[in-house]
Amino acid sequence: MSMTLYHNGYNPANSTEQYAVMLDMLERAEADNVLDIAFSEVTHAKKKGRSVRFSRWAIPATNTTPVAEGINNIARSLVPEDIFVTIDEYSETFAYSSQAADLDPLDYAKDVGEVGHDLVKLDRTAIRWATMIAGIQRIFNSSAHTTRNQVNGVITGGRLDQAITILRSAKAKTYSDLKLGSNRVGTTGLMPSFLAFGHEHLRPDFEKVPGWQPASQYPSDIRLNAYEAGSLASGRLRVILSPELEPIADAGATKGSANLRSTTGTSVDVYPIVIVGKYALKSLSLRGSGTRGSGNLDTYTINGPDRVDPANLTRYWSAHWYDANFIAHELWMIRVEVACTAAYQ
Fold first, then answer.
1. What is the dihedral sign for C-alpha 254, 257, 262, 268?
2. How far is residue 258's CA from residue 256's CA, in Å, rounded to a whole number?
């Protein structure tokens, strides 16, 4: 078990100098709630079981044959399409010693909860992103490619148009309605929109696609969340970027001399761009627990002697939650796998 121990205030690089401890902590990067908007939340009552069945009615094929006089058509059957989901359990725990709590000037008891909540948010984003990049419907940077290890180029407007066409052909629902333009100079309205999620590294490549419209040129501040960078295809695709939406390292084609990002320098890193329609993704939380962004989260602070730690030498902060994120409609989301420009000159 990892545990934070008392820190004596010395700089490891200069053990002969005593340093004063500033009690105001420096700013740090906080967790993004970037994927909340992608998942429609469904609640599940406690004490009702770990596994859940979701269903939708399948629409039968059309029938264009006229009825014969006096003869009814054959009756149709209602057929459900079922999705089975199992709720998973997660936890995070921090431990620190009694000396760290009682003697160190830094306030571990005060700050551990804030850091812990950020870690939970990062965990939940990583879990949701893993669900999003596991969808069966995907295309690549080129229509000539059929596997991930062939990815060797950045995103283009043509591939995004292809993805949008696939979703519209499946009658995927948009996240936003038509947004008319305003009388503000330099602004443009937006068509009904799907959402595209990707890593922050992709921003320059998106901005080079013809028709890119930064969020600053929207008719007003109608961003769906703080991470919306802009839109493409006359606003039919609204782009949301975050450094938490990780690429797949070294999964593409051989890099060679191409100016493309690569973790090891051997093969191209593959950047998934997940384009979703509304209700394609669902999250399941326990009814009456937690708030949006934390889900059904319970936190515990353990600070007191017990039979395992009778001298109270170890203090704990712990978080516990249940999570179930699933693809409710495979045909209402699609993944475009591309490379990413390494550096712009």
1. negative
2. 6
**Phi, psi for residue 300 in degrees, rounded to 5:** -135, 140
Cβ atoms of residues 226 and 216 within 8 Å: no
By CB atoms closer than 10 A (0-12, 13-18, 19+), residue 6 is middle
Q: Look at residue 176 and tell me if it is in a domain.
A: yes
Q: Is the pLDDT of residue 290 over 60?
A: no
**CA atoms of 270 and 255, how far apart (whole Å):** 11
Residue 75 lies in a domain: no
What does the pLDDT look like over 52-81, one tens digit per residue? 999 999 999 999 999 999 999 889 999 999
Per-residue pLDDT of 90-129, as tens digits, reads: 999 999 999 988 988 888 888 999 999 999 999 999 999 9
Asked whether residue 212 is assigned to any structural domain, the reply reads yes
Residue 180's pLDDT is: 63
* Amino acid letter for position 75: A
Angstrom distance (rounded) from CA 332 to CA 172: 5
Residue 151 domain-assigned (yes or no): yes
Q: Which residues contact 311 (CB under 8 A, 6 or more apart)?
A: 98, 305
Give the CA count within 13 Å in the CB-facing half-sphere of 40: 11
CA distances from 218 to 182, 198, 207 (A): 9, 20, 15
Domain that holds residue 202: 138-278+329-338
Q: Give how many domains the chain has, as a whole number.
A: 1
> Does the pLDDT value for residue 296 go beyond 90?
no
